[in-house]
Design brief:
heterodimer, A: 231 residues, alpha/beta, 9-stranded mixed beta sheet, two-stranded antiparallel sheet, 25% strand, globular, B: 94 residues, alpha+beta, 3-stranded antiparallel beta sheet, 2 helices, elongated
């Protein structure tokens, strides 16, 4: 089970993500953004940071990196893709998940611990999360305010596209529509998540709730692999 | 082929909160400037493009505006030809 972590110029959470994926039981490999393939990765993670300095708009220039064609192909073949923070912005700009991430309504870069409700645990990204467990994860972003027009939000909600929401006591840190912190695409295989699970990968860091997300992904791939062998 | 210069103006969609504009607006009283409202901050992109004619050039700029310079979910844009004639880049000597 191999997790590929894309390294864009300006990514800065790639090593934390490699470490956390390793802790979750995966073989984790960095993927330089200029390579045209995924080096055999079963799962692709677009990590946090400031790809291309966030010039023009966060995530928009990273979308044109050579590796993104392979990421798009992987996603359309049903492969799992997780975009964390800046990675979420890249996925949104690439149209691989719905919505846009605007500047925080608070007018500030927000870096703090938040609480998340998990809207469904039947997803490859949440299957290892116990029912009713609220995740405690850190955020660190200037442009994390999730936006979609109202009617499209209704469509997103109706199809179960919202995976994570900001919750009490800390609440919504950035003005995101309907407290949305994480979404999945129509196929449910591509996830964008604003908080950082990799920064909550060991109790020493203040929380290891992020491991529940990473373990969910590893488990999902392992189960799919066993099913393929049986078939 | 001819060279054409364009200006693309990108603005947050009406009705969408513009925290940059709000931050600017809120800081104006510190300059003792009052009575300013509805400040909105956008972006301006200028570019020169080589094409068979201005219609073809404009089509490319419109595409770039929609796919790169602006995010259609949250922003609007306007493409306008710039009146200036662009000279070939000069080559530094020495």
């Amino acid at each position: 089970m191999r997790v590929g972590v894309v390294v864009f110029p300006g990514s800065n959470c790639d090593r934390d993500t490699l470490h956390a994926a390793t802790l979750a039981g995966a073989e984790a490999v960095p993927l330089w953004h200029e390579r045209p393939d995924l080096d055999g990765a079963d799962v692709v993670v677009l990590p946090g940071g400031f790809a291309y300095g966030d010039y023009l708009r966060a995530g928009v220039l990273a979308r044109f990196s050579p590796i993104m064609a392979a990421v798009r192909e992987h996603a359309s073949a049903g492969g799992l893709v997780l975009g964390i923070c800046n990675g979420f912005q890249v996925l949104a700009e690439a149209g691989l998940v719905p919505g846009a991430l605007r500047r925080n309504a608070t007018l500030r870069f927000e870096h703090r611990w938040v609480r998340l409700t998990v809207e469904r645990t039947d997803s490859p990204f949440t299957r290892a999360i116990p029912p009713d467990h609220r995740l405690r994860l850190p955020i660190a972003h200037g442009e994390g305010s999730y936006y979609l027009p109202h009617d499209e939000l209704d469509v997103l909600e109706a199809r179960g596209g919202v995976l994570f929401r900001y919750a009490a006591p800390e609440g919504n840190p950035n003005g995101s529509a309907r407290d949305i912190a994480g979404v999945v695409d129509v196929g449910g295989r591509v996830c964008g998540l604003m908080p950082h699970p990799e920064r909550a990968s060991e109790a020493l860091l203040g929380s290891d709730d992020g491991m529940l997300v990473l373990r969910s992904i590893v488990e999902s791939v392992a189960i799919a692999g066993r099913a393929a062998v049986v078939a | 082929m001819s060279r054409h210069r364009f200006v693309v103006s990108i603005m947050p969609k009406p009705g969408i909160l513009d925290p940059q504009g709000r931050a600017v607006e809120q800081s104006l009283p510190h300059l003792d400037v009052r009575g300013v409202s509805d400040v909105r901050v956008g972006r301006r992109v200028e570019l020169t493009i080589e094409a068979t004619d201005i219609v073809a050039a404009r089509a490319v700029v419109e595409r770039l505006a929609a796919e790169v310079f602006a995010n259609p979910i949250i922003e609007t844009w306007d493409v306008a030809p710039a009146s200036i004639v662009v000279a070939s880049p000069s080559v530094a000597v020495g």
